[in-house]
Amino acid sequence: MYRDAENRVKDSFQAFLVQGANFTKNEEYPIIKRDMVPNHPPRKIMPFSKAITYRGDLSDYCIYFYSMDETFERVRKKPKRYLSFFKRSGGIIGFDFSVHTDMPIIKQKAQMNDNLSLSFYFAQNGVPLYPNCRGGADSVNEEYLQAFPKNTLIALGAHGFVRLKEQKQEWRVWIETIIKKLEPKGLIIVGHLPKEIILTYQNFTNLYVFDSLIEERRKEQKAYVH
Q: What range does the domain containing 164 cover?
């Protein structure tokens, strides 16, 4: 225990993030509540790296974190500082600290837990949340998915993950797993998604595909050239 000069226990491990949560059985991931998730998809989206310096009205924008971890590491360090900021937005897509299948399993679980804990904290305090489902190795995904509500909107980041044939196949498997386990009312996809994947899975759930910031800039450049 860590205590201050007045003998109060210091929350060095940010236990406040999961205050009021229920947890999965073994790993104790905080479980996202169904009523935290809006019934409708976002109107517009904006990356955190842009939103944090945006001077306009954010109420129509859902903020997402599909970028390098260092661009939003500050939120993990001091989450309370950003609560009022996120409340000014139209909501957030859940956190996306990197999870890769070649990471040590303990690191994958730690990143998954941080993503869920931060997402839960802001949603518990009134920020609309579209849960981001970023899985890892097959051995850790079963319990991880138990932290998500069924029959709600679920978000996925696609940018940079579906370029190669092997990546497309991994994505197909992951989407099929999510559809089977969570039965989502819709998938919010941020980033380019190949047409064949859209045509396959739009028969099983609603797909809402948004351009990432990089893709928006590419389209702007093409429009400028022409």
A: 23-225
